[in-house]
Structures are given as structure tokens and as C-alpha cells.
Amino acid sequence: MPLYTFVMSYKGSTQVFQHRRSNYRGFLLEPIGTAFPELKSQFESLMRMAPKPIPHTERVWRASMTVPGGEFTLHVIETKE
User: Fold this and answer.
1) Distances (CA, A) of 41 to 53, 58, 60, 63, 79
2) DSSP for the chain?
3) Which of 24, 32, 55, 68 is the most buried (most CB within 10 A)?
4) pLDDT per residue over 16-48, tens digit each?
């Protein structure tokens, strides 16, 4: 299984979370909830986030969303072993 690195920013704080999963899409709430538990009330909206590939890169996606308190930004990087 690939290793995914989640780099998340919210309210001036950046958190990093790594996990092995078959894909990152179905598991976004785990890293978000671990890194920023105060966003639990926003999980329904955050579940609809669809990270898009970053142009001219391989296996890197980005998504952002405005939530109460500011902008939440997520980068997902698939680390190949």
C-alpha cells in the first residue's frame, strides 16, 4: 500500500500526518480530525473537498476550503517506496 503524506494548514498552523492506505480519498477525515480536531463541526463540508492534481507534478494533490476561522489547505503526497 502506498504511503500518503498529508500536509494541512489552518489558522497559521501547519500539521503533517502520514498513513498507509489503498487510496487517500476515502480517508481524508482521519488526518484532518487528528491534526485539527476543532474542525469536526465542518467534517460534512470537508468530506466534499476533492483534491485536484497539481500541474507538472506526479502524485501530488491540493484542495482548499474556507471554513469558520479561515482557510483550510490540504496537500496530499503519495510517497513511492
Assistant:
1) 27, 32, 27, 18, 30
2) --EEEEEEEETTEEEEEEEE-S-SGGGTHHHHHHH-GGGGGGHHHHHT---EEPTT-SSEEEEEEEETTEEEEEEEEEEP-
3) 32
4) 999 888 877 777 888 899 999 999 999 988 888
Cell 498507509 sits on residue: 20
Distance of CA 54 to the CA centre of its chain: 14
d(CA 2, CA 25): 13
Alpha-carbon distance of 43 to 37, in angstroms, equals 10
Q: Does the model's pTM come out above 0.70? A: yes
The residue type found at 49 is: M
Contact 48, 32 (CB under 8 A): no
Q: Measure CA 72 to chain center.
A: 9
